[in-house]
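Recap slide: ABC transporter substrate-binding protein, sequence and predicted structure.
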Amino acid sequence: MLKIRKIIAVMVLPLLLYVTGCSPTDQDGTKAEFNWKSEEGKTISVFLTQHPYTDAIIKKLPDFEEKTGITVDYILSPEDNYFNKLSLSFESQNPPDVYMTGVYQLWEYVPNNYVQELDEFINDLNLTDSSYDIDDFYPNILDSLKWNSSLGHRMGKGSILAVPMGFEQYVLAYNKRIFAERGLKPPKTINDLLQLSKDLHEFDGKGTYALALRGIRSWTSVHPGYMSTYVAYGAKDFELADDKLISVVNSPEAVEATDKWVEIIKKGASPSWQSYTWYQASADFGAGRAAMLYDADAVGYFQNVKGYSKEAGNIAWVTAPLPYEGAENKSNLWIWNLAMNKQSKEKNASWLFMQYFTNKEHQLWSALEVNGVNTPRQSVFNNPKYTDMIAQSDNYIETFNQTIEHASIQFMPQPYFTETTDLWAGTIQDLVASKYKSTQEGMDVLKEEMDKALNEVKVK
């Protein structure tokens, strides 16, 4: 049920460290003067989903009001139907000025003019506090928000389309108590994971199982562990051919990766796996019903917070299992961001909101007080208070550092991401249910369906 609340918010604008010792100036030579009150009296609308990052925003909204004099009308929607409601809101009488989004959704929103490029705001010293420091974000996180808006061109180059609130990379969490009691070691390879999936079947009686995974018939089941495994085998989702995007999900590499994934699910996942979101998977892991969790590092972290779950304190982390030892770790990324509607009539005020809730001060407070991991800011991650907090989770920091350098958006940008990836999730379910004679057959059918979905999409 939607919850609407008004609040005042002024927005802090992005970056620029001025280190010459002189007063910063605009391009026309006039002195730049940033002022949090520059949009006082304005009202903006913000569309948010339920999340710890959102909890941090809501708790700090009164401070933002006082600092900026901006009023914020916000809508809070549950995550399970958030993007459907957000899409509808763009066509409503009162579309949002600012909204919370992932990267994948931007590929649909950009062609519809729902995304304002942010470079002009970030580089304007009148609009962005000099302390914002855009370069403080992890480079691959910021690069994952840059796109030249051309199909067939991956993320990494072009305009900045959003600013990051927090992100996920995909690793393996395991219950070190359960492993120690059975003399087991965490897996290094996919074959190790497959063996553990067999060894830990009903490890503590009926209802217990080896590996917690997402499984619902949705794109949300494809992008975490499966996609990270998929690209580790050298597989791709699409390639350019004759000015069109062509699905290559039936390549030898794709079939091999998917075949292993299906086998792991059959041997080690919950019997109810096909109904699992991240919430059910992490809940089983925290309750000790699952011995491992292959999902977002932060999802496992929440289960390890004292008092949050039965197994809090017993959880440890390792990097994702790979096709073979020494293979390159290519974790996929999910990033929660704040984006600005290109149709907004209050862009400066919107940018102040976005700036305030992604600046160093707020993100450190969010990380320490609202469990706002993972922070996309290097200065926050390296802050001793933050480091001391997450160091209580066994091998979390080490696993994070071993993964972050290789993490990126692994999907090809295209406007039918949700449709094609929902089809993909359905194919995985059908393969687990043995509805195809082979993995190759299932992926051949999926390729045809994906190509049909993108048949009219021309690459510019």
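Residues 169-331+409-453 form a domain with the D-Maltodextrin-Binding Protein; domain 2 fold (CATH 3.40.190.10).
The chain has two domains: 3-167+334-401, 169-331+409-453.
(End of recap.)
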